[in-house]
Every structure is written in structure tokens, then in C-alpha cells.
Amino acid sequence: MKIELLKLSLQNFKGITLSVDFTHETTILGANGSGKTRLYDSFLWLLFGKDSSGRSDFELKKRLPNGEEEHKTEISVTGVFMVDGTQKSLKRIFTERWEKKRGSSTEEYKGNETSFEIDMVPKNKTEYTAFVSSLIDESLFRLICSTSYFNALKWQDRREMLIQAVGEPTLEEVAGTNKAFIELSKKISGKSLDEFRAMIKAKKKPIKEERDRIAPMIDQEKTHIVDIIDPTPKIEENEQKIKSIEEQISGQLNSVEEANKDANLKLNTLYQEIGQLESEKTSIENKFKVAYNNNIQNQESEKKILEDSIKTAESLISTGENHLPSFAGKIESTKSKLKNLGDSYKKTQSGEIDKVCPTCGSEFTGEKFEEKKESILKEIESEGSNLKELYTKLVNEDKNIRQNIEESKAKLQELKFKFQQNSELSFKHYVTEYNEDSRHREIVQSIESKRKEIEEITSFKQEAPDTSSLREQIRILREENDKLKQNLFLLKKSNESVKKVEELEKRERNLSIELADLEKTEITAEEFTKAKIEMVSERVNSLFSYVDWKMYETQVNGGEKEICECTVDGVPYGTLNTAKKVNAGLDIINAFSKIYNLYAPIWIDNRESVTEILPTESQIINLIVSPENKSLTFK
């Protein structure tokens, strides 16, 4: 697809209004700030709604001298394109939305609106965007329209686009006819080359670590290897000697044991009898001890009960005596009320009452007077009855309290007497009790008699032979065997270490072989990687005539690091002069235009710094800084 810009019309775009006709190569001259970049911004805004920096929220409106934005002005850009021989017109319009509130004559700003046209037919945003996207991808379009766009991308994005353009070499392509590479590609099987190399590296690490640990382990085991003659025969010889001496000692002891046989039987009988007597003696002593402890415990328990009862009786007496004054006062008060009530009754009977009605103020006479008197007498009788009942109750309660106090005092005297009796009780100690017991004395005497008999029999027994010299011989032999057994332990440990060293050395050899195989595979993988690097670099650089691409960088450890650096004659893009940067950009645009068969207008900024540019099939729009051209000039 070939796209050329035929005409670009701006209305109030960033303060510029103009219309420009374009040819296959158009040159735009102007001083700095005259609007060259704004013209390129308008071109991109028309298509994608963004400026040359990729911003969608950049400033479209003109700034007035006071710094305020100019309002109520329509901003639009119209572009006429030739697309593969067919003319197409696109238009993007930006307007402010102003509304009057009901009842107000003043308009209020309500935001902005963007409208679109294709071939002068209004379209919504979705339709417009879909049409532009059907022509070209935004990122690719920016790449083939700007000589600086591609090298401004992150190196990862540049690399991805280049690899995508030439295609990632397959394992089979890299392997070719190289047998080692073919065998390696089979081992890789479904993994990426980087994953396979990482896997080999991961496998090597534990193997190398294990192998490196073996040498110290071998050295450690060798410290346990000793040159000792097997001491087993000597140990067995000494054991036989010990057995023979022990039999000699046993024979001597058995001879004495036989001579003392009758005496020993008699002694055993006496010891058994003493044991039985001691058991009976202990039983008697325990019986008196338990009885004594029970008496003491019962005495203390009864004493505690009496103490609690005394406290209770004293508390009842104190409480009762505290209540008596209160009851006496209540009885006197009630008695006084009864006397006053009797006096009132007598006066009422004699007619001494108020003869004037408290309600109406009229005087009671005749029958009404009698009714009034009868009513008062009934009230007095009722109140008197209640007071008599209360008086009787109080007198009875007072009597009960006094009676309870007297009973409690009598009980208290009785309790104190019992407490005194309990305190004066005494019991004979259990040791005295069982020492006075006839059976206990009889047992003690019998035990003493039997012990004297034991002493007499023992004095006539034949003494055991002196076997100390023989036992010393056994001690010396056993001491020697203990040392020999230590050597035997060291010998066993030494033999185990010899076997362990053989196993470790075998494991070390196997690990070394395994590690060597992995390192061989790793070297092949490194060579394979270099072959792939060369293939990728050749494929990428075959697309370009002016620039070269450095796709990999050798690291200090010998590994290859992915990069994507543009160079011209070996000089990195970042240090090139403007002319070479422009031509490098043109070479990149030509390559991608050819790959995707897509040609679009190329805007070349700083064209005044380039005397000669690479040939290209795309339309060229040169932007030249020209101080003498205060306004834009088109050629």
C-alpha cells in the first residue's frame, strides 16, 4: 500500500490556519517557532488524535496575549490522501460546547466535542478510528513517517520488531548439517535455547556442589583409618584366663561354704524368726500410735466444735441485748398512743367535738351531730384495736428475746464448762503405751536372745579364703582387655572409613563424568547460541543498506546478552551527527516499508543539516529551519 499526502488544511490548530498542497517531495521552510512541528502534529492528530510525542491531551487551542485560551473557536484539520491511486479525504473537528441555563442570558462552558468526516461524510469516532486502522497500524505508521521514531523506542521493542520482521530462526535452521547441533536440538525438545542452557546450568550446580563436598568428606574419613593388628585373638585369650581364675576362686569359696553349711542353715532360720518378730513388734507399735493419734484428733475436733458453739451463743446474746432498748422504746410509744386515744374516746363520748362542717361551714345539730360523733368513735375504736394488737405483739417479742438471752447464757456456761473439761484431757504417749505392753516386752527380749545366738554361731564359722591376689589378676586382665577393645573399636571404625572412602571416591568419579558431559553439552549450546546469533544478525542486517544492527553483546563471563543497537560504520546511533541519524532513519523506514509493503509520507526534521539523503520510494516532506522565513514557506 502506498499513501501520499496531497493536501493538508488547518483551521485554528494551535493558532495556525493555512492550507498546503504537497507533491512527492515537499520542502517546508520556517524560522524556529513558525509552526513546522505544529504542522506535523496536525498531520498525526488528524489520523490518531495525538501529537508527535504520542500525547492525546496536548494543547490544541491558541493562547491569547493574556495567557488565556481562545474560546468559541472551531479547530479542524483536513487531509486529502492518495491511497493506492484512490483519493481519500479525512477531517477531524474539535469544538467547544456552550450552553445557556434556563432563564439566563449567559452561556456556560460545558466541555469539548470531537467530530469526524470521511470523504465529507460525517462519521462517529468508532467508524473513523476503524477506517484509519484498516489503512495502517498507528505504531507502524509513526515508524515509517519519522526518521527518529524507531531509535527512540526501548531497545527491547526495537529488537522485537526486527526479530518479528526477519523471523526467529528455528532449531533445525541453526543446526543445519552440524551433527553436534542436530543432537543438541533433540535434547532441547520443546524448550527454548535459553531455557535449555538455564536447565544445564541448574543441573551443574548441585552436581558440582556435591562433588566439591566429597573431597573434605574423604579427608575426614581418612583421619579415622589406623594401622592396628586385630586384637580379637588376644582378647579371647584373656577372657579364657579370667574364666579359669574365676573357677579357681569359686572352688575355694564352695569348699568353705560346704564346711559352714549347717551353721548357715541355723543362721537363716534365726534371721527369718527375727524378721517375723520385728514385723509383729512393728504391728503392736503402730496399733498404739494409731489409737493415740485418733484420741488427739478427736480432742481437737471436739474443741473446735465447742469454740464455734461458744462464739454462736455469745453472738446470740449480744444481738438480743442490742435489740432490747429498741423494743422498750416501741412499747412505751405504743402505750402512750393508747392512753391518748382513750382520752380522745372519752371526750368524744361526752360531746367534745368540732360542731362546724369543714366543707360547707355550717354547724352540726341534732341527728347530724350524733352521726358525726358515732363516726369519730368508730375511727378511734378501729385505731385502738390496731394499737392494742401491736402492743401485745411488741410485749411478746420483748419477752421472747429476754427468754432467748437467758437460755443462751445458760447454754454458754455449759459450753465453757465442757471446753474446760476438754482442755484438761491428757493421753499417755504411744511409745510409753507399747513399752508397757507385755507382748511387746516379750518380743524385744526374744529378738535380743536370737541376735546373741547369731553372734555365737558366727564366731565358730570357718572364715572365707583370701582370694585378693586372684581377683587382682582378673582386674589386670580385664583392664588389658578394655584397652584391647578400644583398639578393636578403632579398627572397626577404620574398616568402615576405608569402605566409605571407596564409596565416596566412586561417587566423585561418577559426578565428574556427569559434570563433564553437562559441560560438553553446555559448550555445544554456547556454540549453538553463537551460530544463532550470527544467523539472526545476518538476517536482520540483510534488510538494511546503510545501518548495521548489533543484536548481542559478549559479557565478561563469556555469555551473550541480548541488545539492539543501531550503528553506522561501527559508530553507535546516539553519537552520530544529524545527517547520519536522518539517513539511518531513512534506511530503517525503507526496510520496514519494504517488509510490510507500506509506504507513507516521511517527515524529515532538521533537513537543513543533511546535504544528501538516501533514495526512498516514500513521499518526502522536508522540515528546514530558515531564520529568514518568519512564516512558513512551501516549495
Q: Can you characterise this structure?
A:
The chain has 635 residues and is α+β, with helices and mostly antiparallel strands. The protein is built from 15 helices and 13 strands. The chain has helices spanning 36-48, 125-135, 138-145, 149-152, 155-166, 171-175, 179-188, 193-222, 232-259, 261-349, 366-424, 430-436, 438-459, 468-541, 578-596; strands at residues 3-13, 16-21, 25-30, 75-83, 86-100, 107-118, 121-123, 548-554, 560-568, 571-572, 602-604, 620-625, 633-634. It has a six-stranded antiparallel sheet. Strands 11-12-3-13 form a four-stranded mixed sheet. Strand 9 and strand 10 (571-572) form a beta hairpin. It is flat and about 150 Å long.
Keywords:
62% helix, Helix Hairpins, Rossmann fold, 15 helices, flat, six-stranded antiparallel beta sheet, alpha+beta
Largest sheet: 6 strands, antiparallel
Query: What is the string of helix and strand elements?
Result: EEEHEEEEHHHHHHHHHHHHHEEEHEEE
Terminal-residue CA separation = 26 Å
What's the helical proportion of residues?
A: 55-70%
Structural class: alpha+beta
What's the CATH architecture name of the domain at 264-438? Answer: Orthogonal Bundle
CATH class of the domain at 264-438: Mainly Alpha
Poorly predicted spans: none
Radius of gyration: 65 Å
Residues in β-strands, percent:
5-15%
Helix count equals 15
Mean pLDDT: 86
For this structure, what is the CATH homologous superfamily of the domain at 264-438? Helix hairpin bin
Look up the CATH topology of the domain at 264-438: Helix Hairpins
The general outline is flat
User: How many runs of DSSP E, i.e. beta strands?
Assistant: 13
Sheet with the most strands: spatial strand order: 2-1-4-5-6-7
